[in-house]
Amino acid sequence: MNEQETQQLIRDSIQTHLGLLQSFGVGSFLHRHADLPSESIATTPSEPTQETSAPTPQQDSNNHADILQAQSLEQMSALLTDCQRCRLCEKRQNLVFGEGNPNADLMFIGEGPGADEDAQGRPFVGRAGQLLDKIIQAMGYAREEVYIANVVKCRPPGNRNPELDEIAMCMPFLKKQISLVQPKMIMCLGKFAAQTVLDSQMPISRLRGNFYEFEGIPVMPTFHPAFLLRNPNMKRPMWEDCKQVMEKLK
Ligand code: URA
Fold first, then answer.
1. Distance 22 CA to ligand 1 centre (A)
2. Is residue 19 included in any domain, yes or no?
3. pLDDT score recorded for residue 56
4. Nearest atom (ligand 1) to Cα of 189
5. Which segments in the chain show pLDDT lower than 50?
6. Is residue 53 part of a domain?
7. How many angstroms does the Cα of residue 30 sit away from the middle of ligand 1?
8. Is any atom of ligand 1 closer than 6 Å to the C-beta of 162?
């Protein structure tokens, strides 16, 4: 990598980090967009690359503001359905908004749609989703009673990890979903959900098992069901996390 490329990489990573901070409302040091309420400010756009042909948030800022002012999840979902804010829109079949009880006490947040979710437009419907269904049942809930969402709403191609700028672009929508559902408790499934919601770099193995807060809502980070499928011996500690959540929800 030459010096110019290194500098670009550093610039990009600073921009995406600022974008993440901003999406959590820690953005007073960033430029405010003159005609948008501060909550609806888009993340700092990265310089266009060949890969990113999607419109920048500025180009569809009206729709962006509408989404963030939506009064219901239904309204929000309808407005977001054709989202083209990041490169993930290029290969997706369906945007996976999230689903469940709009007034759920318990909200689960995963990483992003996989192939099955992309095909059906619904979160956690593949193998990991079947395990999540069992966990939800074991916790005493029906799937329809909780709310399930993801950090990114479109499938990263080939199930790669979501990138920082993709997460930053989608985060205001997750934040808005949380504010509409107003759950009593959030369970973050896996590293990406936990680190994004908690704005932490700590590994999931250290985060899990402890309560944190997101905007006053208790958050329990735990292992992702897909990780449990590969590491069944981790089901027991995950269940300990669930028990703590059940206890607190009582
Ligand atoms: N994994 C996730 O993180 N989310 C889904 O919706 C499905 C699998």
1. 25
2. no
3. 53
4. 3
5. 9-10, 12-53, 55, 57-58
6. no
7. 32
8. no
C-beta of 97 in contact with ligand 1 (< 6 A) = no
For residue 123, the domain's CATH number is 3.40.470.10
**Order of strands, edge to edge, in the sheet holding 217-222?**
99-100, 147-150, 106-110, 185-189, 217-222, 212-214
Residue 63: phi and psi, rounded to 5, are -60, -40
pTM as predicted: 0.78
Over the stretch 47-95, which tens digit does the pLDDT of each residue have? Answer: 333 344 454 544 555 589 999 999 999 999 999 999 999 999 999 999 9
Region for residue 73 given its phi and psi (left: phi exceeds 0; alpha: psi -120 to 50; beta: otherwise): alpha
The pair of structure tokens assigned to 225 is 């069901």
Mutate to test the pocket of ligand 1, among 109, 111, 147, 155 (most ligand atoms within 8 A of CB): 111
Ligand 1 atom closest to Cα of 148? 6
pLDDT of residue 18: 45
